[in-house]
Amino acid sequence: MTDLNSRPGDPRPQTPELCPTSPTPLGPSGVMLASIAPSGNPAACILPPALRKPRLRRWEAAEYLELVHGVTVAAATLAKYASVGGGPSFNKGSNNRTPLYPIAELDRWALGRLGKLVSSTSDSGV
Description:
The protein is mainly alpha-helical. The chain is 27% helix and 6% strand. A 3-stranded antiparallel β-sheet has the order 1-3-2. A hairpin with a 6-residue loop joins strand 2 and strand 3. Helix 1 packs across helix 3. The radius of gyration is 17 Å and the shape is globular.
């Protein structure tokens, strides 16, 4: 796992915090329902607090993609994709220079990059 304190002065803990525990609600049939994080993203419970924002900076987006989807992509690669195309869509920040990647777009891009599931190596995957 990547070192979560790789940035100087980064206050994030070494181990990700878990979402607060609460009683798991029961559905209409009496079956326990899955606990969903406050953001609606179940993966948010395993993320460090700094990655639980609706939009992430480029280095945070790279870390998010690796932690949640297992897609290893460097922040510099995301910068190249922003210049030549092929990467996740992003918003420009208030100063028109800072790229901010919406979590939903990162999820969509990662799933598209992973491709469809195949059951054998002879499947084409398309």
